[in-house]
Amino acid sequence: MILKKKILVGLVLLFVIAQFFSPKKNQSDLVSKEAFFVQSNAPKEVQKILNQACFDCHSDQTSYPWYNSITPINYWLNSHVNGGKKHFDISKWSTYSVKRKAHKLEELIEEVQEGEMPLTSYTWTHKEADLSADQIEALVDWAQKEIFAYGLLNSNLINNSVED
Questions:
Q1: Where are the domains positioned within the chain?
Q2: Buried (b) or exposed (e) across 30-60, using 16+ Cβ within 10 A?
Q3: Long-range contacts of 30-34 (CB under 8 A, 24+ apart)
Q4: Is 38's pLDDT higher than 70?
Q5: What is the pTM of this model?
Q6: Tens digits of per-residue pLDDT, 113-132?
Q7: What is the Cα–Cα distance from 103 to 88, expressed in whole angstroms?
């Protein structure tokens, strides 16, 4: 019984000490969202969807929930944000080549259509990010138009979305 108490006290102490450490927050002074919207010709409806469902993890402006102050949750959230930015980072959009932009939009279409994005763990606490069929269609239509404007539309994307 004494050993269990020592272990419990040790774990509580470790938890308390851990609260003094946290990862760097993903919050930049740059206003990259507006530049992305202008460069990508995103209509207002699509801008709203992207803001609600995508940009916490795919931009340099994460809006953190209150529970981000709790270690180890903050490290878990940070890993999601870093992973999201690794795959699609609108903060770097202006540095991408036309071909890379088209590829990123193709990935966006695929992930959204397959229900892989936004992550289920994100929509648990962000109900507004749970995309409806109409919102998915709006995102896909916009992304396809942008890819088409780049002259790089993969014919498989059009065929797949028409069949769905």
A1: 2-163
A2: eebbeebbeebebeeebbebbbbbbbbbbbb
A3: 30/60, 30/91, 32/59, 32/60, 32/61, 32/90, 32/91, 32/93, 33/59, 33/61, 33/90
A4: yes
A5: 0.73
A6: 999 888 888 888 788 889 99
A7: 10
